[in-house]
């Protein structure tokens, strides 16, 4: 591979742009501006407040208050309800709204800015818990579906802003660590939610719905997200520890923005990412329905506690020891990281299909409690799949960040990708809202896992071959001979 160091003569390079913005395989459509590094901090608090780590912590806190609480409710199995089917319909409506807003994320981010999008999204967090509470206490199903739709629309704004931040703000060599913090926060929220649920439902050793008062605690935590969202800094005020400025694209007319959006949608990179994006969250509806159909209330409450505990541990290990491993080239990390979660996922899908077939052949569907015979066989593949699902999501955003560009470009890429994710979720929950299709969703999910493998391998082979040195600086590698090339300055 010809050393790209010699060919880079763009204005962005001359202005001090980070070299990884021009790595091979990355596509840039917009005119890029380099935002000068902000002036020296006025105080120690100012230095902390504007640091990239603080921004990731703010996004992680919002992930704790918003999607983590939503996931905690979903982790109860069927949203904690006695049957999962109305909840699955509400989830379907929610992710349809997410898909539409996420698709338009790039143009919206260009006009609104990342900070305002984050604030708008956080303002809708509490609607989620309130919709479940009203349905559980008063049986108002229309509000559950409508409330989840409103939450989904707001979440779409937050989703795009979050993607742009986690792709653009971290320094090189810390992406896996910061992604692990973000994923850990999401699951710390589930852990807290699971603890609450387990404490309030530990004696309910039967099928049925979660205690109604449980939802009020979730609503209170979700409401805290709105004031926290004001702490985020816009890109031009963020100070990275390595001194590398964040790239911003010049504001373009609406027509141009939508042209860039279309180019992103049809780009080879996005087309290769689409299958794993559609697959990555599809398991949510499948596993939530499985948990509701075959486990008691307190077994589901226990699951909502031990699943996030495992996810926090394993995503931290995954980010630190695999995605940020300096001994391997970036492409090698991409290859190994993919195998780490995909191999056990395929094995557990086969396990779940066998279990599902057995349960459907019984005269009466089983309801496993945590001390029931057969609980481990029914639950272990579910548990492994939940962990692998979050490893997959951590990996995907790390993979996308290997082709990072400017903030608006990341908003477009992240928005389109999250649109694909949301469509996958909407389809999953839509299928699972039908009581007669217990095996079909699981079989589809299994097929999607196999289908996405060759496409993901194809884009992995486009990941630039370099590694960080001791100072976290990219070091180029020759593709043909596998020898060390010129150090990136």
UniProtKB/TrEMBL annotation:
The chain crosses the membrane at residues 52-73, 85-104, 116-134, 140-167, 179-199, 205-232, 258-282, 302-323, 335-354, 439-460. Residues 1-21 are annotated as: Disordered. SUPFAM superfamilies: MFS general substrate transporter. PANTHER family: DUF895 DOMAIN MEMBRANE PROTEIN-RELATED, ET TRANSLATION PRODUCT-RELATED. Residues 1-12 have a biased composition (Basic and acidic residues). Gene3D superfamilies: MFS general substrate transporter like domains. Keywords: Membrane, Transmembrane, Transmembrane helix. This is Membrane protein. InterPro entries: MFS, MFS_trans_sf, UNC-93-like_regulator. It is a multi-pass membrane protein. One of its GO terms (molecular function) is transmembrane transporter activity. It is found in: Membrane. GO terms for cellular component: membrane. It comes from the Eukaryota.
């Amino acid at each position: 591979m010809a050393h790209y160091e010699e060919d880079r003569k763009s204005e962005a390079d001359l202005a001090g742009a980070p070299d990884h913005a021009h790595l091979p395989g990355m596509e840039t459509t917009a005119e890029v501006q380099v935002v000068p590094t902000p002036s020296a901090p006025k105080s120690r608090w100012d230095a902390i407040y504007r640091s990239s780590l603080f921004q990731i912590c703010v996004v992680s806190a919002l992930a704790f208050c918003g999607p983590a609480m939503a996931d905690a409710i979903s982790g109860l199995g069927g949203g904690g309800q006695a049957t999962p089917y109305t909840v699955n319909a509400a989830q379907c409506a929610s992710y349809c709204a997410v898909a539409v807003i996420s698709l338009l994320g790039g143009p919206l981010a260009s006009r609104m800015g990342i900070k305002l999008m984050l604030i708008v999204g956080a303002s809708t967090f509490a609607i989620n818990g309130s919709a479940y509470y009203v349905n559980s206490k008063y049986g108002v199903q229309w509000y559950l579906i409508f409330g989840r739709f409103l939450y989904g629309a707001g979440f779409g704004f937050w989703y795009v802003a979050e993607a742009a931040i986690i792709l653009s703000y971290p320094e090189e060599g810390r992406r896996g660590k910061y992604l692990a913090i973000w994923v850990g926060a999401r699951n710390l929220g589930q852990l807290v939610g699971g603890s609450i649920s387990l404490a309030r439902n530990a004696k309910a050793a039967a099928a049925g719905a979660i205690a109604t008062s449980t939802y009020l605690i979730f609503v209170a935590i979700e409401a805290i997200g709105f004031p926290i969202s004001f702490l985020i800094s816009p890109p031009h005020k963020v100070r990275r520890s390595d001194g590398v400025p964040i790239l911003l694209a010049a504001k373009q007319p609406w027509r141009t923005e939508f042209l860039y959006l279309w180019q992103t949608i049809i780009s080879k990179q996005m087309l290769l990412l689409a299958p794993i994006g559609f697959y990555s969250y599809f398991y949510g509806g499948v596993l939530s329905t499985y948990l509701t159909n075959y486990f008691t209330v307190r077994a589901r409450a226990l699951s909502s506690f031990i699943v996030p505990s495992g996810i926090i541990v394993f995503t931290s290990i995954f980010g630190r020891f695999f995605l940020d491993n300096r001994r391997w080239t970036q492409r090698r990390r991409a290859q190994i990281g993919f195998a780490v979660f995909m191999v056990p996922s395929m094995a557990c899908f086969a396990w779940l299909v066998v279990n599902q077939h057995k349960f459907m052949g019984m005269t009466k569907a089983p309801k496993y409690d945590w001390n029931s015979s057969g609980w481990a066989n029914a639950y272990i593949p579910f548990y492994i799949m939940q962990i692998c699902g979050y490893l997959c999501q951590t990996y995907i955003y790390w993979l996308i960040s290997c082709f990072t560009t400017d903030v608006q470009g990341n908003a477009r890429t992240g928005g389109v990708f999250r649109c694909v994710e949301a469509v996958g979720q909407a389809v999953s929950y839509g299928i699972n809202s039908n009581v007669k299709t217990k095996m079909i969703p699981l079989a589809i999910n299994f097929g999607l896992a196999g289908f996405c493998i060759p496409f993901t391998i194809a884009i992995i082979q486009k990941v630039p071959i370099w590694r960080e040195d001791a100072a976290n600086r990219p070091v180029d590698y020759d593709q043909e001979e596998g020898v060390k090339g010129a150090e990136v300055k």
